[in-house]
Specification:
Purple Acid Phosphatase, chain A, domain 2, five-stranded mixed sheet
Length: 236
């Protein structure tokens, strides 16, 4: 079993809300302790600027849940999203996670999967122009010359400027269309994305499109069983 969750946006809301989300996530992991891997499909944080010796303030309960997951012998994969593209080595060094900056191809349950946050597949106009800058090493290096607290605060300001509504139907539709294009190539028969904040599992000609939605809103995730079947689950 694989477990997919996305769009926590830690740093966006009041601490009490984020503590509730972290507790719900820990319960979700406990309920799916038989899963082989957890894939966090981007936008785990509202803004993430990872310096060489400093990282942003982290929700302790969330990191603790991830640590227990890995210590119990399960795999953790963390994807960069449009709000947190500056992942480097922290999660790899501290938790043994695999950090994916773009997309991941994998085979599981007889499925050929394409997994991506989705921001580069269905970008809005402003972000379409900014994405190459946010991902380029030179602007990243220049940003990190700022003092850590200032750099993180500015990253949060920039993140707010990119923020859309809580759920974006046009983005969800664009991601489904992108999934259909990939199925048409014959290379994949499943696509998993986040980004749209719209949880769904859609059967299409040639394959299945799955999106775990925004955990901060609905506490949902996607499970892929060993039989190749997808289903939506919710933290209790």
């Amino acid at each position: 079993m694989l477990l997919f969750a996305s769009d926590f946006h830690f740093g966006r809301r009041a601490l009490s809300d984020e503590h509730d989300a972290a507790r719900a996530f820990a319960r979700l992991l406990d309920a799916h302790a038989d899963a082989e891997a957890l894939l966090l499909v981007g936008d785990v944080f509202e803004a993430w600027v990872e310096y060489r010796t400093l990282v942003p303030r982290l929700p302790a309960r969330f990191v603790g849940a991830l640590a227990r997951w890995v210590d119990d012998g399960r795999r953790l994969v963390v994807f960069a999203g449009n709000h947190d593209p500056w992942h480097r080595s922290y999660f790899a060094d501290e938790l043994g996670a695999t950090v994916v900056l773009d997309h991941l191809d994998l085979d599981y349950g007889g499925r050929r999967l394409f997994v991506h946050h989705g921001d580069g597949l269905a970008p809005r106009g402003r972000y379409r122009r900014m994405r190459p800058l946010l991902r380029h090493p030179v602007p990243v290096a220049l940003w990190k010359m700022l003092p850590g607290d200032l750099g993180q605060r500015l990253a949060l300001v920039a993140s707010r400027s990119l923020r859309g509504p809580d759920e974006e139907p046009e983005v969800a539709e664009a991601l489904r269309a992108e999934a259909q294009r990939r199925f048409a190539t014959g290379r994949y028969d499943a696509v998993v994305c986040g980004h749209s904040h719209h949880a769904q599992i859609a059967e299409m000609p040639g394959g299945t499109y799955a999106n775990p939605g925004a955990f901060y809103r609905t506490r949902e995730a996607v499970v892929l069983g060993g039989d190749g079947a997808f289903r939506l689950v919710q933290a209790t």
